[in-house]
Amino acid sequence: MPRETPCPICQRQGPWLAEPFAPFCSERCKMVDLGNWLGEEYRIASPITAEDLLELAEMEESDPDKESGSDC
Asked: pTM of the full predicted structure?
């Protein structure tokens, strides 16, 4: 059984990652999220720098929960 997670918009719990609108519970929540981006309610605070990318790569390398093997 797929793991239950909250929908990012309505917070309803369910197996959304296995659904066609993942990570949202429905097309409605997916469209609400898109509208938030288009309405500039979500913003990226600053441009990504080379240092940010190196830090992210280091975090991924040291993550004990990261599965070894293929990246599929």
From this structure: 0.57
